[in-house]
Amino acid sequence: MKSMSLLCAAALATTTVTSRAVDATEIYTKTCAKCHGADGRGDTKMGKKLGAKDYTDPKVQEALKDDSALKSIKEGLKDKEDRVLMKPAEELSDEDIKGLVARIRSFKK
Which of 24, 36, 42, 86 has its CA 20 to 30 A from that of 10? Predict the structure, then answer.
């Protein structure tokens, strides 16, 4: 009986993690890919205009800190002249934002 409970708990946890990964991919595709590109390279018209980083670059990934990425997604980004580079993701939960950071991390080659 205990092993069956553990098996069910493991299956549920796997399903939850998988659904979060799918949600993060969907959120990224809908809200981030326009600038950052589907592949995370930032090689889009808007990405080039706004100076989006190439998240496939190991040096960019190394310099990116999770807490900084979380804050940037949650609060948005402005340039030195106070122009909006990235709007805040006000409609996303903290879990959604953590999923997006994990998605960004997945671009590392």
Answer: 24
